[in-house]
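chain below, 297 aa
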Amino acid sequence: MTAPRFPSQDDSCSGAASLGQVRTLFISDLHLGTPDCQAALLSKLLRRVRPERLYLVGDIVDLLAMRKRAVLDKDQQALVARVLRLARSGCEVIYIPGNHDASFRRLCGVKLHNVSIERRAIHVTASGRRLLVSHGDEFDTHVRIAPWLLTLGDGMHGFILSLNRWCNRGRSLLGLPYWSLASALKRRSGTAQRYVAQFEEAAMRQARLEGLDGYIGGHIHQAGFRVEDGVLYCNDGDWVEHCTALAEDADGALHLIDWQGQIIESAPRFVMSRQAVIDPAIQQPVMACKPPEMTGA
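prediction:
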């Protein structure tokens, strides 16, 4: 697992062409309704990338934070409008609520403004890999860390993000690019890294139990890939600290991208679909592709 570089406002967008056609885009942890939401950068990505299918993988709206204070500025409103335009224009949009927008889970199975709301999904890539898609908060109970440490960490994270805003206002005045204080502290925290490792193991274990090829989620605000016993773990990151998304290209390859569409990291290609079959003529595995399917739970 590698920590992606947070993009600066001064970066070029030359990497968008290298990604090519985007079949599917996975985005999570946007936290609309909070001052930390990087809506403007996500809008820029959606202007450069036109996916055939868009998964909103939880914590898109931060209903928990909005109980205390709601911030829905013009950038956030414009982003919501852009996603709805995508849905109306033929992009299949699937919204999987997370723990911060859990109230929307009562609407699972409903379609609103061409947006399907589901508890979870099974995504089938163009190469035939079947991947479980969920927000990931269901794996919190599998993490062996003292509950008080998790509560403390959640509270500290909010405090650090507020410091992060002030820090970057100063950096902006000095002409310096964005820098994520929260990300830097998490990388140096042994407790945080143990939590991430246990979360990844729980997610891969669930995919393995269901006979799937891997897992895609968010929740922990740490993008990356991991492979264990033939199961692929993918985390698409977040839009309050790192501004990363997971993109599937026309061939079914998976890539972490930044807000410009630049590829940060690509998933290992050697992880083969569990639906693969052996061609007796050449005695080599051949991918057995299936059409995309959605399952609610």
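The chain is about 30% helix and 20% strand. Residues 108 and 118 are 5 Å apart (CA to CA).
thats it, cya
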